[in-house]
From TrEMBL:
Keywords: Membrane, Transmembrane, Transmembrane helix, Transport. InterPro entries: MFS, MFS_dom, MFS_spinster-like, MFS_trans_sf. The keyword 4Fe-4S does not apply. Residues 24-442 form the Major facilitator superfamily (MFS) profile domain. PANTHER family: PROTEIN SPINSTER, SPINSTER. This is MFS transporter. One of its GO terms (cellular component) is membrane. It is found in: Membrane. Its main location: membrane. GO terms for molecular function: transmembrane transporter activity. It is a multi-pass membrane protein. The chain crosses the membrane at residues 23-42, 62-80, 92-113, 150-172, 179-199, 229-250, 287-306, 318-338, 344-367, 379-403, 415-437.
């Protein structure tokens, strides 16, 4: 175990007062909501983009996954190292401005290459958000509240997905898919200024300069290499993320292809009942957004709450809880994909959506607790590098490639259905890796 310096001990014990902590966590949550809103809006408008630009499912998989993930993951580690040495608040603020500008640029794209490059820019910007945010949050709160605080921040994933799906679908129905990107990206400038001016950086300037004498990148990597639990957690989380990102990228296309008549009937009935014009894209975007947002938020909250309750008694709860969720999510998802009823399918989908977000708090808290305070941003970046390169980079691309392959024999609707089912079966492997992490987790936690 690496010895903790007095400076690290002081940093570990320095937390914000309750009112300041609530404000800071709320601002970071809003930032993360926009992070995922700008990232996920492309998913609900994928089908209109495909038709307008003449794309294949594989190209959609690149736009929603690999193009974003490759640069997002590559940039994450150097930005995290910068966060160990510089003002984390300013890094986050600059990142918000960059990814928001490139989101707007997505709406200006005239072909696949231009849209691909704009998505790369979004990924570069968003790489500057979570590693410094995780490091800040771990300074803001005491250890016994860390899983809950990180789970609260992680609510940005389901809530941002809700906003992205709902906003993207409704705006695309009314004004087209390009307008969805304009509206999603525009508020980022205001949010960046708010964060720059009001978020507290609890490290003093002298302490940030002193980090140069702390662990180098080599030391940080060496510390992580000694933590077998970290790597098992990274593998399990990568598999969970691969499934989740692969699914979310194609949910809209799945329902539009396989439940088009059902969606049209329901949206028409709602239009007649409410007087609000709602097309199939707007309806499914709203429903998927609510499912992912509401049930994803419930799952994230439950995961954080259960971890804070049980991990102080047995740290293995950090991985037992995600393992249980992975096992329980598979049967209802397969049923949701196979049923011919639109209403039943969407109802069943709520269960795996809830369970797919349970891991956020437990996993991030475990990783932050496995390393010394000065290595936290780097540990978060390494985890995100693995998780996003495998999960976000491979998940949507895998679903797209398999869907195109199956479509030759089954047609595009059935090909996508079975592609989504195939990738969900990897959840069994994810369950096993979380259980492997439990074998060494308790003895390797240091902070």
């Amino acid at each position: 175990m690496v010895a903790t310096t007095p400076a690290e001990e002081a940093e570990e014990n320095r937390t914000l007062s309750a009112p300041h902590r609530r404000y800071a966590l709320s601002v970071l949550l809003v930032i993360y909501i926009f992070n995922f809103l700008d990232r996920q809006v492309v998913n609900i408008v994928a089908e209109p983009i495909k038709i307008d630009l003449g794309l294949s499912d594989s190209q959609l998989g690149m736009l929603t996954g690999l193009a974003f993930a490759l640069f997002y993951t590559v940039m994450g580690l150097p930005i995290a190292r910068l966060a160990e040495r510089q003002n984390r608040v300013k890094i986050i603020s600059a990142a918000v401005a960059v990814w928001s500008a490139f989101t707007v640029a997505c709406g200006l794209a005239a072909n696949f290459i231009q849209l691909l490059l704009a998505r790369v820019g979004v990924g570069v910007g968003e790489a500057g958000c979570t590693p410094p945010a995780h490091s800040l949050i771990s300074d803001y709160v005491p250890r016994e509240k860390r899983a809950g605080a990180l789970a609260f921040y992680s609510l940005g994933i389901p809530l941002g997905s809700l906003a992205g799906m709902a906003l993207g679908g409704l705006v695309a129905d009314a004004w087209g898919w390009r307008a969805a990107f304009f509206i999603a990206g525009a508020p980022g400038v205001i949010l960046a200024i708010l964060a720059w001016l009001t978020l507290p950086e609890v490290r003093k300037p002298a302490e940030r300069g002193a980090v140069h004498t702390g662990p180098s990148l080599g030391d940080a990597v060496a510390e992580l290499r000694s933590k077998s639990a970290f790597w098992w957690i990274a593998v399990g989380t990568s598999i969970k993320a691969m499934i989740a990102y692969g699914h979310i990228a194609f949910y809209g296309s799945f329902y539009l292809r396989n439940h088009g008549e059902g969606l049209a009937g329901i949206s028409s009935a709602l239009t007649e009942a409410t007087g609000i014009a709602l097309g199939p894209i707007g309806f499914i975007g709203l429903v998927l957004g609510l499912l992912i947002g509401v049930f994803g938020a419930i799952g994230a909250f439950l995961g954080g709450m259960l971890s804070d309750r049980y991990a102080m008694r047995d740290a293995r709860a950090y991985v037992f809880i995600p393992a249980l969720a992975a096992g329980l999510s598979l049967p209802p998802f397969i049923w949701a994909m196979l049923t011919g009823s639109t209403v039943l399918s969407l109802t069943l989908l709520a269960i795996p959506v809830l369970l797919s977000s349970v891991w956020y708090g437990p996993v991030y808290a475990a990783v932050q607790s496995l390393v010394q305070p000065r290595t936290r941003a780097t540990a978060s970046a390494v985890l995100l590098f693995v998780v996003n390169l495998v999960g976000l980079g491979i998940g949507p691309l895998f679903v797209g490639i398999v869907s195109d392959s199956f479509a030759a024999a089954m047609g595009p609707a059935e090909g996508l259905r079975w592609s989504l089912i195939v990738i969900s079966l990897a959840g069994v492997i994810g369950l096993a890796t979380f259980l492997m992490a439990s074998r060494r987790l308790r003895e390797q936690i240091v902070s």
